[in-house]
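Hi F.,

I've been meaning to write this up properly since the lab meeting, where we talked about keeping a consistent format for the predictions we share between groups. The idea is simple: the sequence comes first, exactly as it goes in, then the structure tokens exactly as they come out, then a line or two of notes. No screenshots and no reformatting. I'm using this chain as the first example so we have something concrete to point to.
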Amino acid sequence: MKPDYDVLIVGGGPVGAALALALRGPDLKIGILEARPPQAARRDPRPIALSHGSRLILERLGLWEKLQPATPIERIHVSQRGGFGRVELDAREAQLPALGYVVDYGALAVALAQALEAEGGGRVIRATASALEGGVEAAIARFDTTDGAQSVSARLLAVADGGTLSAARTRTRDYGQAVVTTRVTCAIPHRNVAYERFTAEGPLALLPLGTDMAVVWTTTPQHAQELCEMPETLFLERLQAAFGRRLGEFSRTGERARYPLALRITDRVAEPRVVALGNAAQSLHPVAGQGLNLGLRDAWELAGTVASLDAGDIGGAAHLRAYAARRRVDRGGGIIFTDALVRLFSNDFAPLKLARGLGLAALGAAPPLKDFVVRRMTFGARG
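Output, unedited:
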């Protein structure tokens, strides 16, 4: 019997929505299983740094103009607190219009969700998956609605929601860290420079967002809670002490939020009729801003493999082996890179601090190496 869908996407967040839009067309029947309404993500205050490679994907999906104004990052200043060594990455040196673009996560998620509804990227089922089952000819997604338990079949289940997969398929490493996000007003204009400052408790990033700076402050869970609860004036004092005065005095903050940090990796990205992408495949530390950009590349690559197949071959063993092989180097590189940065820089061990300083100085003095790093952060392993 013919499945209900060619591709059923589990999770309608940015990665799932981008996949649906990349697959849209008259030849495929696409479904999206997502419980949250389109406007729900608007309340998410996190800043997101999209790479130039992600901008190209969103342009091809016809979405980039809907995200404006996005704030370009023209330079990135990397340093470590209490130690020597720094490096600056420059978009002009890399022959790119920008190293990245900062937007609100909520604005990105809502723009994608609205485009999905307006442009007919697929049928949206407002429900949460309760079980996913692979199979030889088709996969089954089971979900609960107000009318009771239901199920649908698909040639391929593309799982983009990390909470849907069973814990047995996922390895987790708790970093013992949490991140605090907010916005601050600075006395000195940012001039489209982003800052990544490594401290013993974790990286502190300040990203240009409009005329303000978005703060992504990694620290211990207890300190993160204290930072969210303390008065604004005290928070600004703590931030000033941690970051310094390159941007002058911080004078005002926005809403503060905190999130726990862990590395979650799905060992088997592809199984019979089921493929994981985005946060369902890997959930990364926010250092270097690789997580969502990696997920958008997952979606674009998967859509490309589907477009090259006859409908009957979608989700077959050969298809999923080919997709997993195409993503192996980029995915593995992103995971290793972010995890290594956290492990190497989130401590105050003196010999390691010296080695970090030497490494940053060497990177700053080697233009070909800087170009290699920028290309990989911008375009992934195919950069």
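Notes:
Residues 5-170+262-382 form a domain with the FAD/NAD(P)-binding domain fold (CATH 3.50.50.60).
The first helix runs from residue 14 to 23.

If this format works for you, I'll send the rest the same way.

G.
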